[in-house]
Write the structure tokens for this entry.
Amino acid sequence: MFGITKIQFFNSNLKVLSTIIQQNGMSQYPNYYIKPIYKKDSQEELIKSGEIKKLSHLPTRAALADQTSSFSNDPLANLLINYCMREGNKILARNLVEQCFENIKRLQLEKYHKTTNEEDKHQIDLDPKSILHKAIENCKPILQLTPIKRGGVRYQVPVPITDKKAQFISMKWLIAAGQEKESTVRFNLQLARELIDAANNTGRVIKKKQDLHRQCEANRAYAHYRWS
Amino acid sequence: MYSSSIRFIFKNILPLKTPVQCFSSAPLLLSPEKLQRFRTTESQCLKHKDEHLGLFYTISEEDRKRIFIYGGIPKSFDVQTKTFNETCLMIRQPSLDIINCLRNLDYSKPVVRFVLYGKKGSGKSLSLAHILHYGYQSGFLIVHIPWLGNWMRRCKEYSNSETKEGYVDLNLDAAAWLLNFKTQNSHLLSNPEAKTSIDYVWSKREITPAGSDILNLVDHGINRIKYASDTIIALCEEIKKLSNKGIFRTLVAVDGYNAFFYPNTRVYTEKKEVVHPQNVTVTQGFMSLTNFDWKNGAAVVTVDEIAIAEEDQISHLPRYLLGKEGFEHLDPFVPVHVQNYTEKELTSCLDYYRERKWVNDYPGLDEEVKFVSDSNPYKLMKVCAPL
């Protein structure tokens, strides 16, 4: 009895309610919900600093499917999976990135077993995640060219970009390089090769970054169009 | 207490490890004490005992080239061995049990049939590989089909048999198998006593007379692909006779044996009718080899869900996979269950991965991987691949 009246109340007063409850776009959570802290070490830090007392009674969002407390969980790798994803096919995207990691390990181990010198062996990085981090860091551009219209002419103006944008561009380039291959080669293998190359500061993506920088350098005369 | 978002909580305690073995080998960086936990230097399968359970032993490159050059090691594991730069197999209970039996069998009695069964990815084929290695080292004549599914479900070529009405030949596969047989047993086939017992008339001009070498028979099959299937039947009969005489001690090993009894094959007649496996010529030879009407040998077969079509992969138990016909053909047999990794085997496997630098270690890896893979060897391999 009470339940029905409650639903009726909500149905009839939805418009009124929606102004009271703070909306957050399409999200199912209102915007005062805090994001979950799912990493074990960051939880421990909060406990140590005593901040946990404040957070523990705040309404918290549920963790996403890819947010696990596992040590193997890497936010940047998750981001790469999301950038690889097409039409929401996350299972495929995750499989591709995981196979790419597997390929990185195989390629690096092959190198490892080939080298005879003990010192050179230690130089070879066998951790796919650290290779991914290095590759993304190495491919980040500093500047970008933006078309700005001045006096009827579009000028390619070099503009500094934020770190987040640079990271996005870097990952976008890496994925594009992985897709640019012969039809007989798999995406995961090509991506693995590109990542290893980029981690060693060589390869196509690094060249692309340098080309962009060179063009920015050439267009430095237009730089003032940014603000005038 | 904390946030509601903690998904899995793993204890960060590594399991206590105790040294189980006193042999040591130190090919890489780990201390010898740690190596003892998962490796053994005993590459002679004859000496494998219960104390070696869960340890890895190395198959030498020569042996591998001899036994497994035309298959016998699953493809996914083959890739691993290339990456690891060595071929190491884990010594596990099922293969050890069968090896113990083979060691103590009374070979004057009819052949004993062993059936390895287990869920997908639990290590049936690799157990069979271990047994084969034992068979090779202890001087058995090996009759080995690396993967029967390749014949019944993805054969290279098929044609109607000319010698037998209503039968279908798999010429290329049969010739490839003969080559495999020859490489696996070249050291035994040169035995001067290995002669054929009767004349084999292939055509007007081609005759393998009685008293010629078995090697000649095999070579004839390889060179005249048209007669390869018939050669296999002849060879199987000869092997039985020679074993009965005591010249050879034979080990028959078939991976995916249940494909012999699964009606829905991908072998067709010239009229594109599906052929029952019993109407494939080569089947006859192996049916008679897995029968119990001969002695001085043993048969180890695996029944595997993957050898049949996907829609029928319902159960992994031998009665379902073999069907009534197959079960009665093999009965009585010794069923051997291949199970998932035990705690010790799992630790040993992960230690091996760490030593080969295949996984990057972090606290709680063992528990996490065990939980995700359910201790299934194949799944464990897959789960560890991107780590």
About this structure: The longest helix of chain B spans residues 171-189. Confidence is low (pLDDT under 50) at residues 1-28 of chain B.
